Structure formats: structure tokens, C-alpha cells
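Progress narrative, work stream C.
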Amino acid sequence: MATSSGQSCLATKHPEMVANLMRSSATAMIAAALMASTPASAQDAPVAAEGSFANPAMPDRPMYRFWNNGGMMTPTSITEQVAQIRSSGAGGFEANQLSGVPSVSKVPGYDPQRHGFGTPEWTRAWTQLFKAGKAQGLRVDQIYTPGWSAGIQGLSPDAPGTAKEITFGSVFVNGGESYEGVVPEAKLPAGVTKRTLLGVVAYRCDSNCEAGSKSPPMLDASTALDRTASVKDGRIRFAAPAGPGRYVLVASWMNGTGQVIELAQTPTPSYMVDHFASSGAQAIVDYWETKVLNPELRQAFRDSGGSLFFDSFELNRHGEEVRHWTDNFLSEFRKRRGYSLVPYLAAISNSSNPMFEFSNGVGTRIREDYRQTLSELFVGNHILPLKQWAHSYGMTLRAQGYAGWGPTAVNNSDAAAAIDIPEQEANNRSKPMFSTDASDAWRQVVSANAQMGRTIVSSEMGTFGRTDGLSRVSLVMRMNEVIGLGMNKVVYHGWPDQTPGGSSRWPGYMPFGNAVGDNYGVQIPTFADDVTINDYVARLQTVLRRGELRNEIAMYWGGPDEARYGDLGLERSGYTYGFMSDALMAHPSAKIVDGRLTNMGYKAFVLDAQGSGIPMNLASARRLLSWARSGFPIFVIGELPARVSGYHPADDAALRKVVAALFAQKSVTRVADRAGVVNALKAAGIGSAASYDAKPLVTLHRQSEDSDYYYLFNAAADRTKAEVTLEGKGLPYRYDAWTGQVRPISLFTRTDNGVKIEVDLASGDSTLIALTPGNQDTPKPVCKTAAVSTNADELLSLDGGDPVLRDTAAGRYATTLADGRQVSSEIAAVGARKTPASWTLQVTSWQAGAGVNDIAKVALTPITLTPGADGKLPDWQHVPGLENKSGTSTYKASVDIGSGWTGGTRAYLDLGAFYGTAQVSVNGKRLPPIDQADVSRIDLGGYLRPGVNDLQVHIATPIYNAAYKTKSPYGLVGPVTVIPYGQVTVPMGCGGN
């Protein structure tokens, strides 16, 4: 955030800028506004393409949301904690004040009057925090106001700049009768004292007109009678027309919502700002510039290299819809939609359950226009001014451009396109283990960002509850999934501030207790393994920021909220897809070059009449027709609506003509339902860069000048094996993000435009493959041929020379090479599988120390464990004395493997089940980091020796059993099995052996 040091604030220097940014009318103006998106250098510098996969650069590493206590932080606590964040393998942090969560946590040492936002101590601490981050080489982002959504002190809920809503008062009148009295009104929210009359309109009520009706009263919009001008001194007289029937007089008012941001913990109340008026954004800017920033902090902002951040905009009250409004909404609506809203105010709602409804579908159409106008105002009056303010300090805007509490009016595509680094939340409360909420919402945001020519999409990672008890393992699996949907910037939720005074109970300050996936920091036993996980994430982010995103299919999504396709057919055949809104269809980047649409290279456009948010507007329909006339393939699912979006009945006939012309084009294919789309695409010759047959895989494809990168994620609850065809030039390489190794794939079949390989993925696991003639990561190819088949378990390239063949059974194995040769290999002997008969468990208990922030690490008496009949060990809930323990542990066992077999004493280790994080040592030597999502084939390689071997499995647990007595299962369960394999070299003339 912020401005240049020693310069006037943006609002003072350019008072017209914020005001002018909101004058972007309708879809065309939103599209024009999106053209002013961040230049690549602002978002991506320094770019990850120059980073090392094995040792990623700092900008490519994940970040932490640092929940801090503002001015309560001391210079010492800041310096120590920022150094700890650096030592975790992170590349930065988001400074986010969160001084307690109502009903969950309190900060006893925090005094809002002394430590809150806007106080000298807050500015002092924030300056030191930014400087400490820079000293450690870390990127520093920051939330734009404490708590969420945005709120600012010093404003009355009645004043311009604070959140407003439309409310209704009504009175029913029988035909031929009259009402004379005060204009009906709703009760004002607490703290609100003023209201502004927007209009008083009478309607005939056709049904649901009696008190107590469960459905909204159904009104006839054609009978609307505007009685606003007859209001005098707050009173009105209305005479209902004579005859049978019932009428209702509806008064519409604007008033403040009175919403206070409790999480802000500011010296005086922070009222929610108006997110749809320029005055709301201006209030944020003005407060920073006049109350918070000084020259030193301004310079620190410029030096940070970070982003201004806002969280999901939760503008509704819990359990209650807010019908959003703003001071000049009526004039903005008329300008953008072309008609007066006053006669139709009664049907206003963000949801499909308004207080009043209009017959003949009029209410639905009015609400489409209402929500579209709000969406445009949010982008033009909130996102763009704040982004420009951030840019004035050399910062970017990272933001969650969506709502999570109740109905929303915002088109997520348009918001994402306007934000420099759009962010989604990996929120998985009460969902299946490997299922992310609304996967298409990720594709929607990722594709909008990519169409704007940008690379990075971030995730607020780890907000799900711990119902599975697998904390870090489930975290890794969920990261694997959203990475497959295009996310390439992890921001963990979060790292709690351990400044003294932050908590009255051990193990220190944890604002959400155990209600989130986990907390992070040195007070958590998994900290050492978090470093390994951060290296893993950083390597994936390094590669998956290279080049450009590639998608085969563009889908239309015209409505607010999250896009939804609702069918897995495309995903499970390898197709990748994104979404286009009306604004994105009108954007200059939506052009067809060499038969491909946009820079993502869409091959076809799908218009899903069964679920596209809302009907398409006339301009978008005409745009689609022009694409079809150029020969671009269009697929229409189901019957298209006979009307345009919004209340524009004069355009309906024109739309029907456009649709008729569209269906007359040879490039247009009609499909009965979503289930038929894949076959229709294939029949039209439109394939996917990655293809497989009905497998539960999620594919991400990025393309650089020298490589095609494919990321494959297994979304099934079981292990998945698949034969996958990939397009690209050169040879296939497998990237191991856990170890940083890049190795050629020795077993593949060459196709006309790529290769066919086999993938074998555990549930929740992923693999990264590059198809390239050579890039900065890959070793120089030394093989002149490849193997196309083998009947052994594996054929691996380990050192650049001839590959090795592996199998867990003795026998003779045949390998067919690409040049037609067949190589016969023999594994004469393989040792028997071994299961340790006894284990010694050594636990180092992490428990309360001298102070609430202190950890006492106490070595407990070793425990002997014997596997049960099923080979499994008891988890800690079934080991007396460990039920409420957390910490680090080592399971020790001895395994006698005998004298050896073909290839030496090589074996895999299958850990079975475990709860926590896991690492392995053999004979005192630590193995490379293991894949936390798949511990079934840990390669013990050359670590084993003939005879007796010492096996150690290191398990680190969450802190929750010790801190909150959650009674979660921790530890190694197994069954643990050593699986010997034989290994022989297959002579292929590769050299190096």
C-alpha cells in the first residue's frame, strides 16, 4: 500500500482520480477498465522462470499470513519472528493484524487505545515489521484495514463512505380504500440515525398478499404508480383503485448498515466502508495518508516489493442478507442499464428470495441488472482505486474478489481480471477429504487472470477444519489439488504472533484455536517438516509460473458468484477449460489468432444453457456469432433462453435472431446435455493436449518457449494408474518436487505430436512432467532410443546412463525399445518382505514451559510397541500416557534382510498409515524428504546393508492434543513393510554406466 516518501497522498495530489475511476459504464466500460491491469513487471518481477527448480528463489516460495497484534509487537519480538519465518523456507509474509477472535480467543496485553490501527505504536510496529522483512530478504504484503471486510474509524454509519443498504416499509390497502399516515419504514440498525427516501410506489398485489404468507407477495409491475412526489413532511396519502383486489404501498429507503468490524480492534469503532462508492475507497486512502503513514513507513512500503491485500468481502450480516446500496446508485443504474429503477425497487435482492416479487419474470430480470450494476461499481469504485493507490507505492493488489457469507452480486471473473494477484480460499470445512469447494471457481479466477496476461494466482491455504486428523498430510493433498486448478502462490493461514502478552494460556497466541487446519511457527512440532513442505511448494511454484496457461475450452459464465459447470466429463478426459464473462468476451484480448481464442489458446467455446449464471446479453451473443462466422467452433448445450440478461425486453427479439443465425453456422454444434460434450468435441476433431480415458485426474498445462509442463493430480479416493498422452516436442522428464531432482522418463511411446506415458498416483498425490528438447532444469539427453514397453514393475533413469529395471519378484523380463530391439533381463533373486516384529517409540513431549509462550521439550520413557495381528501399531490414543501428548517422536525397529539379492540390498518401504508428518532414517542416515501424500514406495536405495538394519521413522504431530486435548489419533500406525526389489541395468547405449 501507500505513497511515495515525502510526497502528498494520492487523494490530495490527484483528487479527481478516485472519483473518475468509478465512471465506467456497463460491460464495455468494465472491459476497458480491465485493460489498465498491472504490467507484467509489476506483478511478476522478479519472474520465476529464471529460478532454480532444485533451489527456488525467494519470490517463488510460499508465504505466511502473519496474525499479529499491531502496536503490541516489540522490536525484539518482530526481529525474532521474522527470522523464524525466514528459517521456515518461506519467501515472505502478509502483515495482518488479528488481535483475538470473538468467542474463541482474547489478547490480554492488547489495548486498542495504545496498540490499535491509527495509533503511534501501531505505525512504529508496522514500520519495524516491514524493515525486518526486507532485512531478511522477505516479501511483505499487508491487509488494507484490520479485520474484514474493510472498515475505517472516524466515520459515522450515516455518512458517505460507510456501507449502505436499501430497506423497505410497506402497507397493504384493499381496493377502494385509502391509507393516510407516515411513510412506512423499517427499523434502523443499531447506531444508524438517518435514512433517505428513494421512492414510494404502489402496486396491485396478485397473490401471497395476506399476512403470514410463506412466499413473497406477487406484484404486477405494470400497475406501478410512483407516489414519491406526494410525500409531504414524512406523510403520504394513497387511495387504492376501486374494485376487488389488494394493493401495497412500498417505501424504499437508503440507510447505513451500521456494521462494525469487530475484528479490527481499533481505538474507536471501525464501520464497514461502502464497497460500491468511490467515497469508501477514498476513506481508506485518506485514513492511511493522514492518520497512519509517515515518511519512514512510506519508504518501507516502497521497499517491500509486496502487495496490498483484502480478504473476501463479507458484506452480509451472518444469517441475514444485506441489500447493498450506495448514495448515487439510482443515477448509476440509469446510466448503465438505460432505465429508471424506481418503479421496480420493491423486487431488489441479492438472492432469489426478495421481500416482494414481480410476476412474468420481471423481478428476476430486474435483479440481474441490480447485481450487474453492483458488480461494476465494486470493480470500478473499490478495486481499481485501491489498486492504483497500491501502484503509487510500487506495490500490487492481491485480493479475494468474492464473498463467502451469503448471496453476492459480484461477478468473480470481472473482479479477478481487475486484481493484480487474485486469490481464492482453499476452504474445505465438512467436505470430502480430497475435494475443494467449487473447483470451477478456481478455473474461473485463473483463466480471467491469464487472459489479462498475468501469471500468479494465490490461495489462502489451510482454513479447513481438522475433521480428518491428518493436518499436514491433508494440507499437502489440498495444495496438490488447487495447484492442479492453476494456483501457484500459497499463503498459509496462518502464523500467530507470539509477542509476550498475546495469550493467557499455553502454547501462546492462536487466534482460531484448533478451528483451522493448523497454526504455523516454531511452537508447532511439525516446524522442521514444514521447511520440507515449503521447499516442495516452492519448486512447484517455480515451474508453474513459467510460460503461459493453456486451455482447450472456453465456457460462458455471465452471472455473479462462482462459475459452475457441474460435469466431470471434460476434466476426466484431459481437457482443460476456463470461463469468460461478458466483459472478458468484450475485452481486446478476446481475439482469434490462428484458430485459437485469447492467449490461452482456446480451441472451442461452450455455451451451457443448462447453467451459465444468467442469459447472455445481446452484445456477447453478437460477438459469439462473429466468432462462429469466422469458423471458430461453438458448442451449445441445451436450449438457449429466448431473452437477454436483465430487463431489456426490446432486445429479446434481436437476440432470437442472433441465435437463429448462430445455429445456422457450420461451426456450431448443438449438444443435448453435458454428458455429450466430450464426444462432440472429439467428433469435431478438437482434442486435448493431455488425454486419458475417463480417469479421475485433474490436468494443468503451461507452455514456455522451450517446454510443455503438465501437472497431473489424482482426485480419486483410491490410487489411480493411467496411460496419458501428452503433446509437445522433445523428451519427457519427471520433476520430483520433494527432492528437487529432474530425471528423464525412460519408458514412453512416441506419438505424432508428443508422447504416451504411464502415471501411477496415490489418492491426493500429483506429478509434474515436462516435455522439452532441453531447458534449464534437464540434464543433457544421452539416450538415442527409449523403451516403449516392459513387463517389469519399473524402468528408471537414475544417473543419465542406461536405465535400470526393477521388480519385486524374481524372473526374466522383456523390454522393447523404440528401435524395435528387445532386451531380456533377469532378476535371479529377490529377498522376502519383512515386517518389524517390535518397535521402540521415543516421544519428545512438547508441553507447557515456564511461560505461556515457552515450550518444554521433555523426553518420555521409551515405549515398546508390538504390531497387532493386522500388522498395525496403536495410535497415541491407544497408548497409555500419550492420549494428550503432542511433539516429535522416533519409532525404531531392526530388520534382518539377509545377505542380499539381485542388485544388492535394495528395497521399498511402505509406511502404511500415519498421523502427523513423516521422515525416515536407515542405519543412522536420513533419507531425502519423502512424499507426504504417498508413503507406499519410499526408496531405501543404497541405504540398506546385508544383515541387520536399523530403521527409524520420525513422526511429528500437531500441537492440538497437548494444547486443547482434542484426542486426535497421532503417530505411526502402519502396517510397515520392507519390500525388497531386484534391479538390473538395461543396456540401451545411453552411456554414463
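Work stream C, second folded protein:
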Amino acid sequence: MNRWVGIVALRETPAPTPVHRIALAIEAARKRTSYSLGGQKVSYARMRAALRRVGQGYAARSEWDRWSYCVDLAGEFFDGGEPLGGLPRWLTDDLRVTLDHDRTATDGRRARRRKPETARSGSPRPRPTLRKAAPARPAPPRGSHASPRPQSAPVEPYVRVVRRLGCRDVTHPALSEPPAPLVGTFGDTVRTAVVEAVGGWDARPEATAWLGLAASHRSHLYESGLAETAVTPFVLGMLDRLGRSTVGVILIDAYTGAHRPEKVGVQSTEHNRRRTVARHALGRWAAGHGLVRMGAGEAQRPAPSVAEAVAFQILGVLSLLDAHDIARRLVEAVCPDLDRPADEIGGADPTTEAQIVFAKDDLTYDFTEEGPEHGKTFLATARTRTGRTARGTGLNKKAARAAAARALLSVHPPGGGKPGGGRVADTAAARPAPAPQPYLTPSLRHKDALADLKTMFDLGGGRVDGLLAQALTHSSYAYENQTAAAAVHQRDNQLLAHHGSVVLDHLTTHARVRRVLAHGLVPDEDEARIHTPANEDTTRLGDELALAQGLMTGRGAGLQRETMVADAAQAVTAAAWRIHGARLLHRRPAALDDWLTGLQHHHDPITVLTYTASTFGMTLSFEHERSGPDHLQTYTSTLVLRDARGRVHRWTVPPDGPCSKTEADRATARDVLDLLTAPADDLLDTLTGEERDLLSHFLRAQIDGLGQTNERQRARMIGRGDLGTDLLATGDTEAFQAWAERVRTLLGPDGATVPDTLHDLYRQIVADTRRGPRSLLRRMAAGQDADTTSALRRHAADAVRRALDTGPWQKPVRDLVQDWWRDQAPDTGVTVRDLMRRETFTPLRVQLGALHETLKWCGDAADAASTPVDVELTVQDGTLHAWIGLHSVDVRAACDDFAQLLSRTLPYTDCLVDDDHVLLRLHGRPDPQDLSPLAAAGLGAYLGEEDTGRPTETA
């Protein structure tokens, strides 16, 4: 039975086709060289480059599905091609941003300033991420501290900021279901223990299954045999991380609700202490109730950290299933002694606390030991510059030091209290405190910001205005206007900012875990990575909320703009959390939700560069030079690159203003990563001599240090664009040849030899793209649905696989067409028009297989519709064109998927589909005499000529 019956859709018979129909089809294909994006014409070459750039961004965020989509789509933008359907909205927006950015960035790079000659090995352009020093303002007159700005400062006209005021209900996709063989009935045991602790909980069956998974330690997961196929260990790691953030936000909520410390350092120290106490208590609870499922080896000597990890995983599941209140009640029930001193309940030793209390007294420790080697006892003596001493003993130096610190705090308590009176955190004991109130005479900017934030976060009630006003109070304003702040019980936003950092970490972790686990339970390391919001991330959130315009600041705050905005964003989030609590997990401002969605969970530039370098056997380190006054320190970072052969290159980036070591290192690493894209972006002519030296050193090190790679490493290399692999993966051979030529210019005579490892890499890249786990061929073949679309795609995958494996390359084109005509004509009737004359065409083996499978595919479609087939053949400019006309067949429905897969998988092969015909184009191979060794290596792998034998010539 013909498989096409019931699949091919009939259409009305079109008007008679003109005589020169193949010529018209070829001419129409030649005119398709650009794509309309947002009303603008973008050339196919620019679209391919933009798709690769956008795909690299998705790969950096471990969004491999979108990355694969971009790689596949880039292969469809060949001259004459026509991508199927429209582009998704998420991709259209990113493409517009990328195309606009590339245009302005290219202009900027072509016109950027040259670097000073004093910088060793070059010093690239400055980075906007570094904090820039603002011009100094004149000193205010004495007695003017009550005014937030000098009288002589010009008054800027007030223009109200337009903020996004929408509030959004967050909907989460359904979670994947944990495998029953792994969970078993252990979920009931965990649920019972949770219910006993919290006093009641109506848990859904989904919760029971997930609790059973959370009780598994990774050792049990490995021994179950399901660690790679059903659930990866990274799932447990994500649940652990979510549980830790859940405990963190529960503890900080409880502490800030009962205590009001004077300094943020006290709050931070106490929060860390409580987390340690809670960790130990939760671990004892999980172990005591038998909730830990371990492997046989781990169960012989179970470490306390195993039970603690399982407890956090259980709390992570509770948060994941929107049972935050149950998680809070569980922590409160299991950890009732959080306000007791840590050393009394097995918590953290007091060493850190003593270091904080006696930080200005130069606290030091001296150690002596006594006893035999197998049973030594250590004596620690704690001393301060002011003459305070205390002693402690222990079986190791750490225990002795903790005992000495405990004794020192007991004899000399902080704040001049009585000996034995306890701890630094006790100074923040619960006491009634007046609630903060809004300022009496705030600026219009501040008032408008408060009103907008109340709308954005859907806030109401009497205490909201005061909390938000505190969230927008910078420490410089509170210091310069102490009387005005005290009148309304206000202070700076540092305590709120610390609270908000914990809340934002929880919101970020919850959103990430929920999104990843909805797609499956087998994420890899990149997909499971959870990014802790850095200062630059929270600064971006503050900019989204337009907080800078509403901040109450002092005169010198302009130098701290990034930190100021980041603290305000955290403080505003904390204020909203104190009002709404866990409601922010489900309903929040659209600006905050978009920020959480767009947060890039990937490595910073230093880590990316380190990983890239290590892939090719390189090592890197940073050297620093400090300059500037103590309050405006500036660090100059020099990157030291050492390749596999021991060659060293240094690269220095001059700072743009006051910056830390980390900021300087990031700027240097980011600059090197940008330079690596220069050959692909055709920007070599804009580089200085020092930049070209660095780029040639890195490229030479990549080629010399390349070793064997696995599929995951190769996917990352394509995602980064290493060694032109992204160009080969998308089939953009013209761009690859141009890249190889630019690399030859950079490397000179050293680039004449291509090592075997690079040949192997290019062959493996091509094989991964065509047949690998993420390839379009494998994805089409994997569909198991019974609908016609899935069946059609499976047939298309089988046909293209046959073209790759068993193409009839022993026959000339005419003989191949004649054999097909002999088999097809009795069923449908075939008309063949040969216009090749005596033109010479040298096909590849797979191209002959493509012609055979395309004729067979169209013939089967015509047979199902009982309609004849018209075939016309011609050779123009070294390209064989085969025009196949189908009558009374919906050609697009029947052939779109086959044509897309054929064009994407086979080299130098395009299959174009129109309303009434299919046009197959088999392009001639490039002249090997015009190729550089690097280009020949890449194109040889792309053509697959090492295993093809001798292709035949067709006259």
C-alpha cells in the first residue's frame, strides 16, 4: 500500500504552466536573497550571521532547544531559499536587537580610539561596566548639611519618568513526573514526617511523588541505574539549591520581624549563624525520621551532610510545589532554638563572631601542643592589642581556637556587658521600634517613584509608604540629613538591601528550577546552573524600575551610582516581600518578571575565557596594579596567557575609573572574548597591531593545543564559534572560506599546516550537525505520534538517511533519471525534458542520492494522488537543476519537511518547494586550488569526500 494515501492533500488543478517553467523557477529562486524582518530587508548573509550570534547567546544561557532552532534556521537562509512560515516572536525580537547592535557596534569598533603605547601588549578599549568617576562637586559651606544639594547647583527641570506599572500573574508549566521505579512508596514516608512536624497538610499525589524523589541521595540515584536516563544528579542539586534559598528567606523573614539591628554586618552575621544552626537541625530531623535513601557505600559511614542535603531537597520540593507556608512551618518546628547561642546547640563556633567584635583590636591566636603524636591536645591563646586574653583547648587547632574565642567573648562581652552575657547578636534583641514614615517634604521625583512602585507591586496599607521611602534612602542622605530622617524614624536602606538580596536569590532560584524541571528531569550541567544575581544584575533591575530618579541621595553619591541603584532594587524587593510574602512567587511586576526570565544563568567572562582556554590546553592568570587614593582605588588588570607549548602573551586593559580587581579582570576577559569574534565579523582591518598579535597568539594556541573532544564539548565550541565551527555547522561555506582566509592572513606561514586533530574536529562537527543527538534528522526521526505530520517527518528522515548512506553514485544523472522513469511511468505517467545538452557536472555521491530520493518522494506523492509527474533537467553555472512538477497535489504539505531536511543535511544541495513544483539544485564543488589549507580542511569535512570514493562526471 502506498504510504502517501491519506497523507497527500489534493488541490485544484492550476492553470497551464508556461513552456519555460524551469527557467522561471530558477529565475524566481535567484531573486530571493533577502528576508523582510520588521519591514526592513535583511540580506540572507546578515540573517545567517545574526542567527549565529543569537544562537551563541542561547547557548551561553544553556537554552539548547533555541540554540538548535537557530542553527537549523540559519541553514535555510541560502540564496534562493525561503524559510518555512514566520519566525517566532521571541526570535524576531532578539534578531532585531542583534542586527541593530551589530550595526552600531561595527561602526563603533571601526572608529574606536587606539590604545596608548605604554600598555604592554596592547590595551583595549574601555568597558562601560566599570564605574566611571564623576567630576568633583564644590564643597558645601558649613552648616549646610540639612540640604541634600548645594544652593549653587543648577536646578534641572523635572520630567516624570514613565515606568512600567503592570503587575503580572505568573503561570508555570506543569512539572515532569518523577519515575515510579525510583520513587516507589517512599514519598508517603516523607509526607507523613512533614505532616507530623507541621500539624497537617493536604498534599496532592504530585507532591508525594516529588517528596519521594527528594529523599534520594545522589549515591542512591547512581546505584538505581536511572542516573542518566530518567533523572540526572543535577535535579537533586537544583532541589538542594532551592531548599537552601527557601530556608534563607524563611530565616531572614523571622529575624527581621523580631529584631532591628543597628548595622547590616550584625544582621548578616546573625543570618549566617541561623542558617548554620538550621542546617544542622534539619539534618538531624531527616536522619532521625529515616528519610534519607543512600547508596550501599554511603550508608556504611553516612556523613551529616548527606542528611542535611536531603532535608534541603525536601524543602526545595515544598517551595517548588507552592507550599511555602508548609516549608516555613517545618523550619519553625524543627528549629525552635534559633535565638540561643550557637555553641550551645551545635551551631557554628564563635570564631567569626570574635573576629568581628575585636576587629579593631588586632585579634590573634597562639598555639601550643602537648601529648603523644596519636593523641595531641592543642592549647590556643587569644590575644588582642588592648591586652585581653583567653585560652581554650581542643583536639585540633580549629577546636582550640573556637574554645579560646568562646572564652574571650564570655570574659569580655561586646558592648561592655556583664561577663557571660553572651553575644553580639543579642544587642539586636527584639524590642518595639517605631515604624518608618514617609518624608515630610520629599522631592517630586521621590513622591512619584513611591506612587509608581505601589502600583507596580500592588501595595497598599499604612506601613507601605514608610518602607518604600526607606528603600529609596541612600546612606549619604541619611548621614547628611540626620534630623530630617530621625523625625520620621527613617534610616538608610542597607538592612532592607541585605534582606532583599536573600529574597531575590530565592525568586531567581525558584523561577529557574521551575522552568528547567518543567522541560524534563535530565538537565545537563549547563541547564542546571543557577546564577546568583550579581551587582550588575540588580543594577539592571533598578534601571528597569527607574529607581535612580526616586532615590534620596546626598552630595557625594554620584560616584556610587551602580551600587546605589543595586541596593535600592534589593531594598524595594524586600519591602514588597515584607508586605506580600510568598505572593511574589505568583504575582509580581511585569518588569521584575521579565528581569527574572531574562536573567542569564551562565558563567561570567572570566569563567568563559578560562573554559575556552582549557579546552585548547591553555592556562591563564591575572596580574594587578593598584593606583589612586584609598577611597577611589583603581586596578589595572593584565591577563597572562600560556599555551600548550609554553608561549606566553600578556594583555592589559586600562581602567575607565575606580574599579575592583574583579571588575578589572572581567573587563579584560570580556575584551579578549570580543576580539576572538573579529575574524568572523570581518573586523581585522579595524584592529591595532597589538590586538592582531593577541588574536594570532590565541588562534595559534587553539590550533596547536586542540585534543580529542566529545559531543558536548563540540556543541559548546559551536555555541562560542571556536575555529569557525559555527560556520560549518550552519552550512555557510562562503563565510567559512572568508574566515579561513582572514585567519591565514593573521597566522602567516605558521598557518600553512593543519594538524590531524583539527581535521578530526571538523569531520565530527559535520557529523554531529547532520546525525548527532541535536540534529534535525534525529529530531524528525524521533517523533512517535500517529498524526500525519509526524508520520511524514519520519518518512522524510528515512529518505534523507538513505541519501546519506546508500546514494546510487555509480550511475550518471541521465541513467539515474531513466531508471526512475522506467519504474514510475507505469503508475502515474512521467514526462522528462532533458535540457542539460553537453554540459559537464561533477556531482557528489550524496547529491546523486538526493536526486534519487527526491524523484522517488515526488513520484510516491503523485502516485497517491493518481496524477502524472513532469521532470525537467538543466545545468547552469555549474549547478544541476531538477524541476519536478506535480498536478493536483498540495506540494507544500507533501514536500516541505522533506525539502527542509534534505537542504539542511546534504552538502551543496538545495530543495525548494512551490505551489506546483519542487526545484532541486545540486551545486558544484569549489575549486580546491583556490583554497587555503584551513579552508580545504573544513570544506573537505563538509563535503565528506574522505569516504566518498571517486564521484562520476555527468555529460
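The mean pLDDT is 82. No further action is required on this item.
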